[in-house]
């Protein structure tokens, strides 16, 4: 239990570091941290210390590794950082980050043990510690099980708070004004006389000061985004038809595929006639797949239409086709 207790007390180490003229803030696991995936491919004026926030003279980038499947995961992750960092929607860019162990889902520890979440017994806590270590060691980057907020709630807020306080310290060194007299607002440090210094202009100074790790998270009464009606990052693009989806991806020489499987679940494909489909414009190939047929064409619509032109001989499923027979069984 002593080892588990030590891990529990020292779960996070928060800090910042200088790389190529900028600074990044966030949260690092204190023991054997995973390699920061943002180090690869950095521009000359970008900086990163951990996987969560990048600052350069061009702007602020927040990394939101839980993927968005329409449930707003990307927006809530950005809001968790922005809430403490004092930045508004529209003042930062959002990137998903590359697939990497650094984005392991810490909330999976609670999902993978046979104890209720409210169980804080010695056995339950021990199992959570063991499972948490396994999840981290395997670098399990997972979106699912309603775990985005549970995984991100504390560490992303702390990342934003560290960024805010370290930027204030950098502004204090530049201006000589005590940190206690500085406030932040809309991605700026504000001096007592009203002078505002954008965060992006403080990147160099912030990269060369000791990070402020002793931070206090804001009381919910001070929240601007969390717990309130909040416009999601993608709502305008989705409402105007300008959002780029996976189906919108285009590459040189790219083809499109669509498939159809037996509508009788588990039933086989006895055979098919694809002669009409193969004669259609843009169709490159028709082939069989497990229990179904796939069409490869030069665009998705032609692949869909070709599937409709195929004649299928579907096998029967291993369950009765009508509800009356279900009741009889």
Radius of gyration: 26 Å
Identify the quaternary structure here: single chain
Count of DSSP-assigned helices: 10
**Can you count the beta strands?**
13
Structure class: alpha+beta
Query: How far apart lie the N and C ends?
Result: 54 Å
How much of the residues is beta strand, in percent? Answer: 15-25%
Averaged pLDDT, please? Answer: 84
What does this structure look like?
This protein is α+β, with helices and mostly antiparallel strands and 329 residues long. Helices cover 30% and strands 19% of the residues. It contains ten helices and 13 strands. Strands 3-4-5 form a three-stranded mixed beta sheet. Helix 2 runs parallel beside helix 5. It is elongated and about 80 Å long.
Give descriptors for this structure.
single chain, 329 residues, alpha+beta, three-stranded mixed sheet, three-stranded antiparallel sheet, 10 helices, 13 strands, elongated, disordered N terminus
